[in-house]
Design a protein that fits this description.
Helix content of chain A: 25-40%
Helix content of chain B: 40-55%
Strand content of chain A: 5-15%
Number of strands of chain B: 14
Oligomer: heterodimer
Distance between the termini of chain A: 28 Å
């Protein structure tokens, strides 16, 4: 197979005369110039039995999720909130017993049975690196963000109206996603219903006629337009078509939204998935935020309790909607927080340790990797790819954990290995994390 | 759902090549016709990005843009209005006429409104909420009365933009003054805010020193009461009056009425600047009631404020200076005095854009960050450049002064911190982590060193810092680039000789902003009327008309005051403000040297704008006289031809000689007729026609 591919590449895509060959073959110049990229994109649609919609939670604040999860309770020097609401509790994941803060243990059994905690290193303690972390710190091809890679692979299989992810939870433009290098808008939950709803009435009834008129107007604008202008007009045509594919009957679900809070984002995300608007919806559930000064970890406690409850609500909403088997929840933040004895009334940035969660049918419940002393605090340990366990001499180095996380997600959602290789250029698939 | 599954074998080969050639990936059942459908990755059939920008490194040859496109675009960007036939013809006859037109547009009142938004974004004074000011009023929110909080937030976000509009446009002062200015446009409410923040001292450890209490050692209490009725403020402020520090508050009698031990009228508070500050804004602080019971704070009714409505609109230029020896800072609660004040003597230094409460609210620092974010964002605003580890400029001593030892060892950290830490000392010598006076002598004694991008200079004060920024070689080109992004939604080629000519013209003018605007916008690097040396590389970008541009255009063209309710104090509600909240907007992100500009016409943009157009149609067509809003354009379905002609020239900005105009008129007339033929009223038919015009590419896009 590989030989045949190489043969195709070498036969069709030698150097030079790209424009002439594009004319001669009818193939786009972009394909001739960068066949691997185009081939990867076209060839790697996710397998239909594994493809999932994704609710992707991300925070540029670097919330202290990593301070309350399984794997951080074995070392007595790691500081946790002493609030009774965050008391250590046991929970069972994949047949193993772990200790975590109480809110995690309170999640329903059916949620825990699909929940995986990943001890990762994002390798940056800097807020503005949030976009780079979402690009797996340089490990993605064409500097694409992980949510956008997932969206590209999943959209064709899922049959979503648009390919791009939707950002509804970003707290600032710094948390916005990009797709193919282009910034994507942030659409807060409160604006969603009024944006997508076509109010019943004569003007809505006239939409088909108006679309016809607009299509004719688009043709008028194409005359004499530059190449870039024509491409933009084509994009307008596409978006008009996409709008008409929105199932208006499902928009009522957005009626209960009264603010842009995390619970409201959850309602919006489920509704958008029910409407098959996009394969990936990005939200932001606070888990303590940038809590440098957090006396007695009050904010961390309050928001962790609320955040885990929001995850529980999300899972219940998916179950109610019949989407429990077709939607996965994934988190990835810019970094985690420091854990060591000096952290009493707040935590600093920790570029060496960030904990991601995955909850979904494709995942085997458990804990991937672990945490150990590093550079005066704690960091993600190397991982043995065969077991998924933290191991000092593991074949996945701490720095390699982030890319491995990305590769494993792609594998979990049915993207084949050939495409994974081209989309994420380092790391390994962690088979122990897969159901 | 499409159940098509591509095996890794079947997707590689001739079939997929053909699929790729059509720009389609697996499972494209929802896609419209291949001829007009972007590929699965969102790129257009020609391989360009969804926003129309070039991806092919110059495969698309340069194509000049027509005056019918760039003249309306520039006028739209500057004032939101459509270009006229005369203006188009003038430029067609003589391209040099464009500069004169631009100068004329800059005289229109709409220019000031658009410029305000540009300055708010460029100086990073927006994107904040009340919560973001909590560091400065630590440990509580700065205000929380629902009536006054939005007004104060609007004031704080507009203050520096108004300052620049006054200094740069009205007084023609150089842009460099934005870094050194110690005059700020303020309302009475803002004067109160600055004065309050000056007495509410929070140091690096979060320890609060209430200078108001220190200055009034004999003050026993502050009272807020209802039963006594309104109290003349002259008595409230007079230490000899029995009503000294007694404030009328209509909520006092009922505050915490259901909490045993709390009801009291008047309510007695221990002296506190914060308690008094929020009382001015209509809120009642928490307190201990009878027996020590906790009585919660009350946000208060909108009418409970001590401010007059005009205290949030009486903008005036105020000079901020250090207090002279023995001089007291102004009493933040003396509203009559503040209303008259044109000068504030403040202890907290206020110099340039980087010292405003809004900038500080944007970029909160802490004991770990130690002002690095603030300094870095100041560099991004002033110079368009950040500390990213690539700067070869070496601070003059080794190790550099004030470098954080924790960051000095790992090489990856050191490359940034050797530059950033001496720089951030410039701010940490003056401000605490909560942006009050720095009282740590170890920090005040270390003034910092400016060593950045080729400039090394000792800095002893914030004035020095501002001057270094204004004289930095990156300054002029950085601001030209900000305008490039604002107008073209993309950077200009920074090494293009034509761009450099514009930058030189800006410098030669003494950094006059008007010169930069006219020279740049009339330049082919912006208009793309002709090829410049590096035009291919940057590509032509067509973008959606983002929120600020779209709403400003609707206001200017249809006569609305603020149809999108972008002013946070607007009472305008309904579909349009609700949709506008979700439109793509210009933004800035932490650490990012470039603005965040969503350019692509996504389905959300298309759906949202359609709903805006539908809502607008109902306000401009066949509106009964009683419901018409003064100034808002009105059209009648009894005269559809005239209305349609207006739609084309006003909304779509196509002048009669534009090759697209006559066809557009014909199509809209046909739409009107066909709509009526479907049985709807003439009014509905014309509204639908308006919506079609409102959704036309030139109505909702920049660059068509």
């Amino acid at each position: 197979m590989l030989d045949r591919r190489q043969a195709i590449l070498s036969t069709l895509f030698g150097t030079g005369l790209v424009g002439l060959r594009a004319l001669a073959t009818g193939l786009p110049a972009s394909l001739l110039l960068n066949p691997r990229r185009v081939l990867a994109g076209a060839a790697s649609c996710a397998a239909s039995d594994k493809a999932q919609f994704i609710i992707f939670n991300t925070s540029g604040a670097g919330d202290p999720i990593n301070a309350s999860v399984p794997g951080t309770y074995d070392d007595p020097n790691i500081v946790h909130s002493l609030d009774p609401k965050m008391a250590p509790a046991t929970l069972s994941l994949g047949g193993q017993t772990y200790t975590a803060a109480r809110p995690w243990a309170m999640l329903p059994r059916e949620v825990l049975d699909r929940m995986t905690f990943w001890h990762l290193m994002t390798n940056t303690p800097i807020h503005p690196k949030e976009p780079e972390v979402l690009k797996l710190m340089g490990a993605t091809s064409a500097a694409e963000m992980l949510p956008s890679i997932l969206a590209k692979q999943l959209a064709p299989t899922l049959g979503t109206i648009q390919t791009q992810p939707i950002t509804i939870g970003a707290s600032s433009p710094a948390e916005a996603l990009s797709f193919g290098g282009a910034a994507l808008p942030i659409i807060p939950p409160l604006a969603l219903k009024s944006t997508l709803t076509s109010a019943p009435g004569p003007l809505t009834n006239l939409q088909p006629l108006r679309d016809q008129t607009l299509n004719q107007l688009y043709d008028v604008y194409r005359n004499g337009a530059t190449t870039k202008q024509r491409a933009y007009i084509d994009a307008l045509v596409t978006s008009q078509s996409q709008v008409r594919n929105i199932n208006q009957s499902l928009l009522d679900a957005l009626s209960t939204i009264k603010d842009n809070s995390a619970p409201s984002q959850v309602i919006a995300a489920v509704a958008l998935i029910q409407m098959k608007v996009a394969p990936v919806v990005s939200i932001h559930i606070p888990f303590g935020g940038d809590n440098h000064r957090d006396v007695r970890f009050e904010a961390e406690t309050l928001q962790t309790v609320a955040g885990v409850a929001t995850i529980g609500s999300l899972m219940q909403a998916l179950k109610t909607a019949g989407l429990a088997d077709s939607v996965s929840f994934v988190t990835l933040n810019v970094f985690g927080r420091t854990l060591g004895p000096g952290n009493i009334d707040g935590r600093s940035h920790n570029g060496n340790h960030q904990v991601s969660l995955t909850i979904g049918k494709p995942f085997r419940a458990g804990v991937i990797g672990g945490v150990g002393p590093m550079e005066g605090d704690y960091g993600a340990m190397a991982i043995d790819s065969k077991t998924g366990l933290a191991w000092p001499s593991g074949d996945i180095t701490p720095v390699g954990t982030l890319a491995s996380f990305g590769r494993t997600l792609l594998a979990a959602f049915g993207v084949d290995g050939f495409a994974i290789d081209s989309l994420i250029t380092s790391g390994q698939v962690l088979a122990p994390a897969l159901a | 759902m499409v159940a098509m599954a591509c095996s890794k074998f079947s997707c590689v080969g001739a079939t997929v090549l053909a699929t790729a050639a059509l720009g389609l990936g697996c499972g494209s059942s929802n896609a419209p016709s291949a001829a007009t459908t972007p590929s699965v990755d969102g790129s257009a059939p020609d391989g360009s990005a969804p926003d129309g920008s070039a991806r092919d490194g110059g495969l698309t040859p340069f194509e000049p843009v027509s005056p019918y496109t760039y003249v309306p675009k520039l006028k739209n960007v500057l004032v939101g209005l459509p270009a006229t036939e005369d203006e188009i013809q003038a430029v067609k006859a003589d391209p040099a006429a464009l500069k004169t037109l631009i100068s004329g547009w800059m005289e229109l009142p709409q220019y000031g409104q658009k410029l305000m938004r540009f300055f708010q974004l460029a100086f990073q004074q927006t994107q904040v909420s009340v919560l973001d000011y909590a560091d400065q009023s630590y440990p509580r929110n700065i205000v929380f009365n629902t009536g006054t909080a939005p007004l104060l937030m609007q004031n704080a976000q507009e203050s520096f933009a108004r300052t620049m509009a006054e200094l740069l446009v009205a007084q023609h002062r150089p842009l460099t003054e934005s870094f050194t200015v110690q005059q700020f446009m303020m309302t009475t409410a803002l004067k109160e805010l600055y004065a309050f923040l000056d007495v509410w001292q929070v140091n690096d450890n979060g320890t609060i020193t209430d200078r108001f209490v220190q200055a009034h050692p004999t003050l026993g209490a502050i009272y807020a009461g209802t039963a006594q009725g309104p109290i003349p403020i002259s008595e409230t402020l007079d230490p000899r009056s029995p009503n000294y520090m007694h404030w009328y508050n209509p909520d006092a009698a009922t505050e915490d009425a259901t909490v045993p031990g709390c009801p009291a009228d008047p309510i007695r508070y221990l002296p506190s600047a914060y308690t008094l500050h929020i009382l001015l804004y209509g809120s009642l602080d928490n307190r201990k009631g009878v027996g020590g019971v906790g009585c919660p704070q009350l946000a208060g009714s909108p009418t409970a404020t001590q401010f007059k409505p005009t205290d949030f609109t009486d903008w005036t230029m105020v000079t901020v200076r250090k207090p002279n020896a023995g001089e007291s800072v102004p009493a933040f609660y003396d509203l009559p005095a503040l209303r008259e004040a044109r000068e504030l003597a403040l202890n907290v230094p206020r110099v340039g854009f980087f010292s405003t409460p809004a900038f500080f609210a944007n970029w909160q620092t802490n004991v770990s960050n130690q002002m690095r974010v603030t300094l870095n964002q100041a560099l991004i605003v002033a110079l368009g450049s950040s500390v990213d580890g690539t700067d070869a400029t070496v601070p003059p001593s080794s190790p550099p002064p004030r470098i954080d030892e924790a960051h000095s060892l790992p090489p990856a950290c050191y490359s940034c911190h050797r530059t950033l830490d001496p720089l951030r000392s410039i701010l940490s010598a003056n401000y605490s982590w909560n942006y009050h006076n720095q009282d740590d002598s170890a920090l005040t004694g270390q003034k910092g060193v400016f060593a950045f991008r080729g400039v090394i200079q000792p800095v002893n004060s914030l004035d020095d810092f501002g001057r270094v920024l204004g004289s930095h070689p990156l300054f002029a080109s950085a601001w030209a680039q900000k305008l490039c992004y604002y107008v073209n939604s993309a950077a200009c080629a920074s090494d293009d000789p034509e761009f450099l000519r514009v930058v030189d013209a800006f410098k030669s003018s003494g950094y006059h902003f008007d010169t930069l605007v006219t020279e740049l916008l009339a330049s082919p690097v912006i208009t793309r009327a002709s090829k410049t040396a590096n035009a291919d590389g940057e590509g032509e970008v067509i973008a959606v008309s983002r929120r600020d541009h779209l709403c400003a255009a609707l206001d200017a063209r249809l006569g609305f005051a603020d149809v999108c309710a972008l002013d946070v104090t607007s009472r305008n509600q309904g579909v349009i403000p609700s949709v506008a909240a979700g439109l793509p907007s210009d933004g800035y992100g932490r650490g990012s040297e470039t603005p965040v500009l969503p350019n692509a016409p996504t389905l959300f943009y298309r759906a949202g704008v359609e709903n805006i157009c539908v809502a607008a149609a109902a306000q401009v067509i066949d509106v009964t006289a009683a419901k018409q809003v003064p100034g808002v354009k009105q059209w009648s379905s009894s005269n559809p031809d005239a209305a349609i002609a207006d739609f084309v020239s006003t909304l779509m900005a196509l002048t009669p000689s534009d090759p697209r105009a006559s066809a557009a008129v014909d199509l809209l007339k046909a739409h009107f007729a066909q709509a009526k033929a479907q049985g709807v009223t003439a009014s509905d038919a014309l509204q639908s026609t308006f919506v079609a015009a409102c959704l036309a590419p030139s109505s909702i896009s920049m660059g068509l």
